[in-house]
Amino acid sequence: MDRAWLFSVLGLVGFLLLSWALLTYGLPLVMPFVVALLIAELMEPTVRWLVRRARMPRTLAVAVSLVVVIGVLVALFTVGIAYLVGEIRTLISNLPYLYAAGLDFSVQLLAQLEELVGNLPETMQVQINENLGKLQSTLVGYLESLAKNLGFVTSVPGFLINVVITFVATFFIARDREAIGKFLLSLFPVKWRDQLRQVKTKVWTDAIGWAKAQVLLILMTMLVSMLGLAIIGANYVALAGLAIGILDVLPIVGPGAIYVPWAIYAALTGRFWFGVKLLILYAAVSAARQAAESKVVGDRVGLHPLAVLLSIYLGIKFFGALGVLFGPLITILLKAMITSGLLPIFTDDSRKI
């Protein structure tokens, strides 16, 4: 066995295990500071412009930029919540009708299923009942897990403390960015420092490219969905569009988790052609996204679509829903470390990512 190949495999496994441990156990402990670092990096071009053009001291430039960021976030949050509250109120007022229609449909469906099952052999009836029981238990487990994950609503004080810490940390990180960078580099051997600078630059460029690509794709899906839903005369356009955009982050499932059940429900409740329109809109949104994804992601990140898909799949397996984010980021970091020579594995040209 080729020793270089063996060392490469062991190095790759070690890197992946270390990444998993840090993201699973380390990241939750320092999350406010990680978010602060990201905000500070995003603010840096504006801070530099204020220092050079407006002749501001760096401390004042950072304070002004941070106030603008907070103001924009508060404004977007306030306007978005106000608009969504209006649609949620309309939805709540229509819940009695929707509940009655759904109940009537479920009664009819259960009656048909009971009639169908009653005509089956006894062994098949027993098997179907067992599977239905397992399905019910699984659904209850998912609902309990969802309720647990949404438990942050009951910990608002802790959330607000994290927000305050994040913005205070952002100010200090942005103000003393150069000094902090030098201190962190001083923790590593001198021979690693140039490579670490290359990794930092490459990871930041590719990570920002990946984030911009995902934001563009999500916004495209959201806006096209809202426009299409408005054209076909759907209700709750903004609320549905927002939900579709959020679900667009999830691979494979994506917007179909909204469109397909909605189309089926519409068809079964007497709005057949509206259901057909929803499916056509879903096909159009999916086609537009698939056509744009490979181009946008490939241009901004430089990863093959198959590598992106594999990183997302493995990320979900190891980190759950957050793997959609962590998987590609680990791949970007791995690529940068190999390219810079900091992680000398698979170094011949035929094995590079």
Uncertain parts: 349-353
Largest sheet: none
Q: What does the radius of gyration come to? A: 25 Å
The helicity comes to over 70%
Order of helices and strands: HHHHHHHHHHH
Q: What is the average per-residue confidence, as pLDDT, rounded to a whole number? A: 75
Number of strands: 0
> What's the tally of helices?
11
- How large a portion of the residues is in β-strands, by DSSP E? under 5%
**Structural class of the secondary structure composition?**
mainly alpha
The coarse overall form would be globular
**Distance between the terminal alpha carbons, to the nearest Å?**
22 Å
Key terms for this structure?
single chain, 353 residues, mainly alpha, 11 helices, 85% helix
Chart the SSEs and their pairings:
Elements (H helix, E strand, L loop, with lengths): L2 H51 L4 H61 L3 H28 L6 H20 L1 H10 L3 H42 L5 H11 L8 H13 L3 H30 L3 H15 L3 H18 L13
Helix pairs in contact: 1-2, 1-4, 2-4, 6-7, 6-9, 6-11, 7-8, 8-9, 10-11
Q: How is this structure best summarized?
A:
This protein has 353 residues and is mainly alpha-helical. Helix content is 85%, strand content 0%.
